[in-house]
Design a protein that fits this description.
Rossmann fold; alpha/beta
Length: 408
């Protein structure tokens, strides 16, 4: 089975090379791994303790971040090596100052894994959520290096629980401990003989609480709102924007609107502005009259998690596509959250609905009804917001549990 796995890894790498001339993400994936062994060899290993964290992309990085920062705070001499699989994580966080070394992870071949582990000799490894690379895990096991999986969540549809998933089950046995988000994951793992688990929850709760505590004032947003209530629409995609703009165009109330599209390309931003019939301004337009505008479109990255604090209601995009984006970044501020129908793979979204802090919609008519209800009945919105933040607060503490295992 490992033989076929390795063939698959090489086939994937070949496919990336073939796609690189036509696909920007593939080109970055390839470029980032050029001379990767020289980059690894250039890392001064020294005698200090080294902990390796691996994240697939940006979302997994955010889950690992509170653990990395707690580690640095408690053990400032410990080196942190951070690797990414995807360009969408590496390219945004390659200058993150919480890690001593940041790299792309070389493709999971036996040779790459041996070189990586033999050269760097980490004292422990932390894989985040969904990352399972057979050769790296096998090599870590061969060197008796503790390896942990954090913020993991398992579903019965995954290969681990299928008749043909023998290699995947073998990978689970390489982990020293698996820190999982829910009791269902504990039970699923126990059903295949994996009992070195611990129910800690999701480190993202610790992270969003940390973000909220550190959020800074955003002058342009405050000028735009001028103490007016707002609906913040975060990480929206075209299907979200279509029903939101329909509502905004017919809305006659006192609320203002902040739109933060997932895609901020110039053509897309202009398309939204053309469809919106209200007075709309761009965040990056220094000459705009923010105070008199009704809609503010955020055409840059990095502000959304702080902008949610200005909302009375949040709409989270992605629910009409591959799946919703981060609901916790809004819920932590004690505001009700709305999102589309594709949310069931996200435990926190399911729980927010069950707790009464979130609402899901299937179409524009349902969006209209929910928004009307929340804006016309502040007591309903306020109660839902309190339930949302109470749920977030009830899930804190995963980082502290994990840290007990990362002490020297």
């Amino acid at each position: 089975m490992a033989f076929f796995y390795n063939i698959g890894i090489r086939a994937y790498s070949t496919a990336i090379r073939l796609a690189a001339p036509f696909n920007e993400k593939a080109a970055l994936w390839l470029k980032g791994r050029k001379n990767i062994r020289k980059q690894i060899a250039a890392i001064p290993r020294g005698s200090k303790r080294l902990i390796w964290f691996h994240a697939a992309s940006l979302g997994e990085f955010e889950q690992g971040r509170p653990v990395m920062e707690a580690l640095k705070k408690e053990q400032p001499d410990t080196q942190i090596l951070l690797t990414f699989f995807s360009p969408s994580g590496y390219e945004i966080r390659k200058n993150y100052n919480g890690a001593d070394h940041i790299l792309y992870l070389p493709a999971d071949t036996p040779g790459n894994a041996r070189f990586f582990i033999n050269r760097l000799k980490p004292d422990a490894a932390v894989f985040i959520k969904y990352e399972f690379w057979y050769n790296y895990l096998h090599e870590l096991s061969e060197h008796n290096i503790p390896v942990y999986l954090i913020s993991a969540i398992f579903r019965k549809e995954q290969p681990f629980f299928k008749n043909w998933g023998g290699l995947h089950r073998k990978m689970l046995h390489f982990f020293t401990r698996l820190f999982v988000q829910d009791n269902e994951s504990v039970q699923l793992l126990a059903s295949i003989g994996i009992k070195n688990t611990e129910l800690t929850g999701d480190t993202r709760f610790d992270r969003v609480k940390q973000i909220a505590a550190q959020a800074k004032n955003i002058g342009k947003v405050e000028l735009f709102l001028n103490r007016t209530p707002a609906v913040v629409c975060g990480s929206t995609w075209p299907p979200d924007e279509e029903i939101l703009i329909d509502y905004i165009n017919q809305y006659q109330g006192a609320y203002k609107w902040i739109l933060t599209p997932h895609e901020i390309g110039e053509n897309h931003i202009k398309s939204i502005m053309e469809k919106c019939q209200k007075s709309i301004v761009r965040y990056t337009d220094e000459s705009a009259d923010y105070s008199s505008a009704e809609v503010l479109i955020i055409d840059c990255i990095g502000l959304l998690s702080a902008i949610y604090r200005y909302g009375k209601i949040a709409y989270i995009g992605g629910g009409f596509g591959v799946g919703i984006h981060n609901t916790l970044e809004a819920a932590v501020y004690g505001i009700p959250v709305i999102f589309g129908p594709k949310y069931r793979k996200f435990k926190e979204a399911v729980s927010l609905i069950q707790e009464g802090g979130a609402f899901t919609i299937q179409n524009g008519n349902e969006l209209n009804a929910i928004l009307d209800s929340l804006m016309e009945n502040p007591e309903i919105a306020g109660t839902a917001g309190k339930k949302a933040v109470a749920y977030v607060n009830s899930q804190l503490g995963a980082t502290e549990c994990i840290m007990k295992y990362l002490k020297p």
